[in-house]
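Q: Convert this sequence to structure tokens.
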Amino acid sequence: MARRTGTGQVLVLGLPLIALAILIVGPLLATVVVSFWEKQALGMRPGFTLKSYTLFFEGVRLTVLLKTFWVAVSATALMLPMAYAAAWAVAFRLPERQARIVLFLFAVPFLLNYIVRTFAWSDILSRTGPVNRALQAAGLTAGPVDWLLYSDFAVYLGLITAYMPFMVFPIWLALAGIDRRYLEASWMLGEPPLATFWRVTLPLSIPGVVAAVIFGLVGCFGEVAVPLILGGTGYQLVGNAITSALDRQVSRPWMIATMAVSGW
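A:
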């Protein structure tokens, strides 16, 4: 029986892990292998060369990578306290029914495609958008404010609104799972609320914080639509830089075929 139980556990746990390894680790390993191949006119040729890495670290791509890393880290640092405060309020200050409503409201934006939401921000922040009209109507500015759109401000605003809800949910799950008796014991021992938070609540919610940071950092690092729509065509991050390179590679064969057919 023990042997059968052990075999069953291996099958139940091992098969999903193998599937994840094939689906996640496999493509990453394939990407690493292809990165050493030699580039040719319309694709890659099997071989071994470091030319791609040399071009990357000597060209503008390294600057784009460093900028992307800084934007992802700083945006995650801005989102984390806001997400934690929202999750803490939902977990400790709202009744269960109201908490469900608030969590549902956090999830409502996901019913709409995030590209549409990003274009909505582009309209809101434009020179003729409601924000500029409100500023001018209040007499705060004499004309439209240009830095609201196609700027770092617009990119950070888009990233925060797109990925902060992803950070709220894991933090809320960690906070909601804390045994309230720990907090009561801290209060009974004379610890003030702030000390209880730093010594009890925050340490017990670290797993949720780590998950939230991963969601925010990875999402911001690979973002494509936000820097392109809200930052403009000259705002290059890794996501839209890769997309632009892929678009050129895909469109080149079509362009050659069109020229051949048309007699060029």
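The domain at 63-262 is CATH 1.10.3720.10 (MetI-like fold).
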